[in-house]
Amino acid sequence: MKIIRTFIIAALLGVGFTSCSEDDLNPTSIFDSTTEPVRNEFDQWIWKNYTEPYNIELKYRFDDKESDMDYNVIPADYNKSIALAKLVKYLWMEVYEKLAGKEFLCTYCPKIFHFVGSPEYEKSGGSMVLGTAEGGLKITLFNVNALNVSSLDPEILNEWYFKTMHHEFSHILHQTKNYSTDFNDITAGKYYGAGWVNINDATARRDGFVTAYASSAVDEDFVETIANYIVKSDAEWQQILNEAVSVDEAGNPDYSGRDAILRKLEMVTQYLADSWGLDIQALHEEVQERETHIDELDLVTLN
Ligand SMILES: [Zn+2]
């Protein structure tokens, strides 16, 4: 216990300590680090790599309080949590830090990342949940135990974790600074609401949405456009645009779906630049570049 307390104090007083805000030193911090029972090696790594620099807590232990009791979920595996924590730092946090600065990340990033081992299924047999964000405070990532460290596939990583993170983070941004209502007009009257579950991506794209989920509501559309553009490779994005073109029985192409998606991309690009000084093209390129190096990462050693 003495060692743990010493570590915490050393971290707080450490040379080069650049805190996100004065809140870090508030004794009533939500992290309540002094009552943490035992900090294992991974806990110490989290402190050094998430909490101390970014004011983010990473919860990987099972905690009923953090899970929605309407769902059945299982805990995240320890080693897979380590691997994902390192991937999140490299493919997500460091990207925003590099392009928007540490202060931006510290201010707007959710304060808690919560890892859950299984996907979350509604007990009623409804849809599967990829991720959730609650009031900008917490992002939950599911299916952590499906992470295959020996065969990392960017497409699967994006589908399960990183698209979700960009999606949820974009909600925080637009909830902080509204986007132009002109966005609502691009595909007005075409949203499916809860009926989106019966629509496949290809159909949604012909209607002018990047994914089926984007067709559920305007806010979802807005953040799905951002998240997909950032994580999709150029070839994958082109494929989305190709699928958005429909051809009638006489062989005449209809480009309205593709044009709507491109107009939405234009609007989210403008929004991120004007409201946040964020270059979505640079975000996209940085993520694509980093994805080519994930096999070189050490996802095991805590240092
Ligand atoms: Zn959403």
From TrEMBL:
Annotated PROSITE patterns: PROKAR_LIPOPROTEIN
Entry keyword annotation includes Lipid metabolism: no
Keywords annotated in UniProt: Signal
Pfam families in the cross-refs: Peptidase_Mx1
Signal peptide coordinates: 1-21
InterPro entries, sorted: LP_HExxH_w_TonB
Record NCBIfam families: LP_HExxH_w_tonB
Name of the featured protein: Zinc-binding metallopeptidase
Protein species of origin: Bacteroides gallinaceum
